[in-house]
TrEMBL record:
<keyword id="KW-0813">Transport</keyword>
<comment type="similarity">
    <text>Belongs to the ABC transporter superfamily.</text>
</comment>
<dbReference type="GO" id="GO:0055085">
    <property type="term" value="P:transmembrane transport"/>
</dbReference>
<protein>
    <submittedName>
        <fullName>Peptide/nickel transport system ATP-binding protein</fullName>
    </submittedName>
</protein>
<keyword id="KW-0547">Nucleotide-binding</keyword>
<dbReference type="Pfam" id="PF08352">
    <property type="entry name" value="oligo_HPY"/>
</dbReference>
<dbReference type="InterPro" id="IPR050319">
    <property type="entry name" value="ABC_transp_ATP-bind"/>
</dbReference>
<dbReference type="Pfam" id="PF00005">
    <property type="entry name" value="ABC_tran"/>
</dbReference>
<keyword id="KW-0067">ATP-binding</keyword>
<dbReference type="GO" id="GO:0015833">
    <property type="term" value="P:peptide transport"/>
</dbReference>
<dbReference type="GO" id="GO:0005524">
    <property type="term" value="F:ATP binding"/>
</dbReference>
<dbReference type="InterPro" id="IPR003593">
    <property type="entry name" value="AAA+_ATPase"/>
</dbReference>
<dbReference type="InterPro" id="IPR017871">
    <property type="entry name" value="ABC_transporter-like_CS"/>
</dbReference>
<feature type="compositionally biased region" description="Low complexity">
    <location>
        <begin position="9"/>
        <end position="23"/>
    </location>
</feature>
<dbReference type="InterPro" id="IPR027417">
    <property type="entry name" value="P-loop_NTPase"/>
</dbReference>
<dbReference type="GO" id="GO:0016887">
    <property type="term" value="F:ATP hydrolysis activity"/>
</dbReference>
<feature type="region of interest" description="Disordered">
    <location>
        <begin position="1"/>
        <end position="23"/>
    </location>
</feature>
């Protein structure tokens, strides 16, 4: 694995109490943003088939840390991110901000989204081609605060922090006049102008050239260090997670199956799915690539037992049988992992937990 960028948390500022969530103030030790037993179900036509896009997730983000949510396409990570942003309402479970349950009234969501901002994957699609850079960055400010005397100062500050200097040079430019990296910086500036405490970045560098990816990742790290920002970075790229994250949550078929520090998860993965994902990285010293058997995951037909067992290379090789856990893999659900990924519950795998107390609930 390649050398990591510096990801030492700066320990962000104490979040100010706001009107985005219901309840009383929570102690400082609680996560800044978290979800508990979260489920999001989408009904098909006629209600005959339902897709369990998020199927029981506990996840916690603490102030000043970057958490990478990784997994293959269709695993539910974008739906989970949208639910944490309040863009999807959970079927069951809860989302908490500063220890207080998120409310779903228009007023509560507007206040919440000022403090928790989204950075999309495709800057070309998220920027209005008819708006100048200045208008694009000022838009969120105008929505949340209306006309302010310091608007131009805050737009200039946001553009500068996003690496577009001098900011005045970009005010009157349109998205088509910018490079891909510059457009992504404009999107980030549009989030920063509201001084949020959390950024949710959905594949923030997937559409960028390799030469620009490192610059944007370095920018996200500097924002964490300088502003104390907390970030959830949604990605299918474990190499990106290695370079930017403090903790990693690996998602498969609607559920987090492994969680821990980036060194724990990516240097010594315990779940067979994580091992398979890592085995195909060019820089990983993991031997031959693992070719998963079986069909891709289907959220409308989640299998019984461990949801990964039909594709699991450990089960297919007979290793689970030799360890005496094969029957449990096929019939017993490993359970939902705790949000913080404590030692006892950081992997949802009977084979990886063999000899330890079961952590299912």
């Amino acid at each position: 694995m390649t050398a990591r960028l510096d990801t030492t948390p700066s320990g962000g500022p104490d979040p100010a109490a706001g009107g985005a969530a219901e309840g009383t103030a929570a102690p400082a030790a609680v996560p800044l943003l978290s979800c508990t037993d979260l489920h999001v179900v989408f009904k098909g036509r006629g209600g005959r088939r339902t897709a369990r896009a998020v199927d029981g997730v506990d996840l916690a983000l603490h102030a000043g840390e970057i958490v990478a949510l990784v997994g293959e396409s269709g695993c539910g990570k974008t739906t989970l991110a949208r639910t944490l942003l309040g863009l999807e309402k959970p079927t069951s479970g809860r989302v908490d901000f500063e220890g207080r349950r998120l409310g779903y009234s228009m007023r509560a969501l507007k206040a919440y989204r000022r403090r928790v901002q989204l950075v999309l994957q495709d800057p070309s699609g998220s920027l209005n081609p008819r708006h100048t850079v200045y208008e694009a960055v000022a838009e969120g400010l105008r929505i949340h605060e209306g006309a302010t005397a310091d608007e131009s100062e805050r737009v200039a500050e946001a553009l500068s922090r996003a690496g577009l200097r001098p900011p005045e040079r970009f005010y009157l430019r349109y998205p088509h006049e910018l490079s891909g990296g510059q457009r992504q910086r404009v999107v980030i500036a549009g989030a920063l102008v509201l001084h949020p405490e959390v950024i949710v970045a959905d594949e923030p560098v997937a559409s960028l050239d390799a030469s620009v990816r490192g610059e944007i990742l370095g920018l996200l790290l500097r924002l964490r260090d300088d502003l104390g920002l907390t970030a959830l970075v949604v990605t299918h790229d474990l190499g990106l997670a290695w370079n930017i994250a403090d903790r990693v949550a690996v998602m498969y078929l609607g559920r987090v199956v492994e969680v821990g520090t980036v060194e724990e998860v990516l240097s010594a993965p315990r779940h067979p799915y994580t091992q398979a994902l890592l085995s195909v990285l060019p820089e990983a010293d993991a031997g031959d690539p693992v070719v998963l058997t079986g069909e891709p995951p289907d959220p409308t037909a989640i299998p019984g037992g461990c949801r990964f067992h039909a594709r699991c290379q450990i089960l297919a090789s007979g290793e689970a049988e030799r360890a005496g856990v094969a029957h449990r893999c096929r019939t017993e659900d490993p359970g939902v992992l705790s949000g913080d990924g404590t030692d006892a519950t950081r992997v949802a795998c009977h084979w990886a937990r063999r000899g330890a107390e079961p952590a299912s609930r």
